Amino acid sequence: MPHINAAAALQISMLLLALPAQYFISQWYGMDPAERIQITERLIIASWGISTRSYLSLDTWADRLKLWLSKTRTCLYVELLILHFRNWYYGENKPKSRDNEAKPHSYFAESTHVHSPKPEYVKFRVGQVIIHRKFGYSGVIVGWDVKADAPEEPLQPRYPSAKQDLKDTPHYRILINKANGFGKSTAYVPEEEITIIMGLEVYHPDMETYFSGYDGSKYIMQPWLKKLYPHD
Questions:
Q1: How many C-beta atoms surround the C-beta of residue 166 within 10 A?
Q2: How far apart are CA 147 and CA 109, in angstroms?
Q3: What positions does the domain Hemimethylated DNA-binding occupy (predicted)?
Q4: Most-buried pick from 68, 97, 119, 148 (CB within 10 A)?
């Protein structure tokens, strides 16, 4: 099929309109002046009626507005879908934390507030390696609270009436050494249950998250952790 460009299409259109135009001109000039006036009046009245229905009718404008709004909503919906897909594809849908945004309270020495000043009665430091006096596992301290900071329900079985005072003593969060074969990977213990040990390295999958190395006596905190425990 031959290709038709814009100029060729225009020429064909003019040829197709030539015959009706000739017929109209011949009919128009074949009338007397009175008939021409009557036809002109009818054309003007008809054009005014169409214009009135099309442009001066409130119902017509209301229908057009509804159509425009429906198209606009559709376009916006499509744009939102595209935006969500783009964010999902490029991983941009991750929430971005803000410094002034309120953070939910964290228990078990996982709070993100700066632990400063450090009370003198908190003896141990983040990065020190410990041994549990009762269970015998080793681990490394990754956080502390000046007293037990946890929901009451998990604390009740650990602190019966005879040990209620322990809840008001410093508590430490521990990454438990995987080399011990202990069932748990973390622990939250009071100060009196642990003791410090030197020269022992700890193996745990989260060590690099908290520490950058080991100097033989303690682990070196990552910068973000050092900001939370500036005096350790």
A1: 18
A2: 10
A3: 121-222
A4: 148
**Do 142 and 175 meet the contact criterion of CB atoms below 8 Å apart?**
yes
Q: Which strand (E) or helix (H) includes residue 139?
A: strand 138-145
Place of tokens 């015959």: 19
The alpha carbon of 143 is separated from its chain's Cα centroid by a whole number of angstroms, namely 28
What strands, in cross-sheet order, belong to the sheet with 129-132? 186-190, 171-176, 138-145, 129-132, 194-196
Per-residue pLDDT, 71: 57
Q: Are 231 and 115 in contact (CB under 8 A)?
A: yes
**Which DSSP symbol is given to 158?**
T
The residue that leads in pLDDT, 5 or 178, is: 178
Closest CA to 165 of 185, 191, 188, 184: 191
Six token digits for residue 197: 């040990």
Bridge partners of 171, per DSSP, are 145, 190
Predicted local distance difference test score (pLDDT) of residue 99:
42
Q: How many helices (H) and strands (E) does the chain have?
A: 6, 7
Strand partners, 130: 139, 196
CA dihedral 178→182→184→188, nearest 10 degrees, is: -90
> What tokens does 225 get?
């952790």
Flag the least confident range among 16-30, 32-46, 156-170.
Answer: 16-30
Q: Tell me, what's the pLDDT at 158?
A: 86
CA angle 72, 73, 75 (to 5 degrees): 65
pLDDT at 155: 84
